């Protein structure tokens, strides 16, 4: 028993931050933070749903949802939302669809989908209808994705994927700067290259600096279990205000961009973590 609890601890956080810490090595060493935010019922359900092989090697699950894009091609459009160019707004009815205009096939629709599936969870009998292990792995990953501002981006540049930039001396694309580079640079510059220290700093701000705001992050209007439309609207606003702002093809992004955008990344990581825990607590209440 003790062992399975211990193995759940790092996995939870690793799942939490999985979309923004894609390198498996980043996943190691993150311990015990989210568990404090999960109710007993939610922690037990999560423990029950995680595959047994997770105990042995957590890093293989960290990027599970990214890893199955080839095996499950239908899941690829579920990682993001394309919104109209330069409008800087999101609405579910207008924007939550895939390239074939299939309604609901976007990250907000996927969060609703896997939340509904997990609401059928019954500790006493495994679901015959859904694979709830997959539902949990998808949900955890997508709650992270939807908080990454450029996962809710403009249609024509594919959320910054077609905008070439230089991150200091390296060539990359704007989307990747927000997925990886800002976090990596922060780790290297401030946190002794350790993701654990970085996550500790975030957790400290969640219980300190930001504690007054956390109940507002957790809440959904009309008693919904989760509210991805809110998260997506915040992301496209942050994409316009921070990610796209002052960036053009071949922009050189260095200290000024890094210093002004890191607080936005920190906030979105924290909100994603808090909201995943709150969503799981409501699902398994
Ligand atoms: C765990 O999985 C990761 C990614 O799948 C792999 O790179 C790593 O070697 C594995 N570690 C162990 C101890 O099996
Ligand atoms: C909902 O989940 C099922 C099972 O994983 C999947 O086949 C379907 O494409 C999902 N739909 C959306 C919109 O996420
Ligand atoms: C559910 O999905 C997990 C992860 O892909 C897999 O390991 C497991 O075998 C699946 N369970 C069933 C009953 O198909
Ligand atoms: C935590 O909050 C302090 C004070 O606002 C800030 O300087 C620091 O960058 C924050 N750290 C993280 C990781 O959010
Ligand atoms: C939300 O749920 C709480 C507790 O179940 C209830 O007291 C409240 O009236 C509900 N609010 C709305 C808007 O449904």
Please explain how this structure is put together:
β3 and β4 (about 170-175) form a beta hairpin. Residues about 1-30 have low confidence and may be disordered. The chain has one domain (about 25-285): P1 Nuclease (Orthogonal Bundle). The chain has helices spanning about 1-15, 25, 40-50, 60, 65, 90-95, 105-120, 130-145, 175-190, 195-205, 215-220, 230-245, 255-285, and strands at about 80-85, 150-155, 165, 170-175, 250-255. It is globular, with a radius of gyration of 18 Å. The strands form two sheets. It has a three-stranded mixed beta sheet. Strands 1-2 form a two-stranded parallel ribbon. α9 (about 175-190) packs across α13. Helices cover about 50% and strands about 5% of the residues. The chain has 13 helices and five strands. With about 280 residues, it is mainly alpha-helical. Bound molecules: 2-acetamido-2-deoxy-beta-D-glucopyranose (NAG) (5 copies). One of its GO terms (molecular function) is single-stranded DNA endodeoxyribonuclease activity. Pfam families: S1-P1_nuclease. It comes from Oryza rufipogon.
What's a concise summary of this model?
The chain is mostly helical and 285 residues long. The chain contains 13 helices and 5 strands. The longest helix has 29 residues, at 255-283.
Layout: helices, strands, pairs:
Layout: H1 2-16, H2 24-27, H3 40-49, H4 59-62, H5 64-67, E1 81-83, H6 92-95, H7 107-118, H8 132-147, E2 152-154, E3 164-167, E4 170-173, H9 174-190, H10 195-207, H11 214-218, H12 228-243, E5 251-253, H13 255-283
Parallel strand pairs: 1-2, 3-5
Antiparallel strand pairs: 3-4
Helix pairs in contact: 7-8, 8-13, 9-13, 12-13
The site of one 2-acetamido-2-deoxy-beta-D-glucopyranose has 7 residues, from α7.
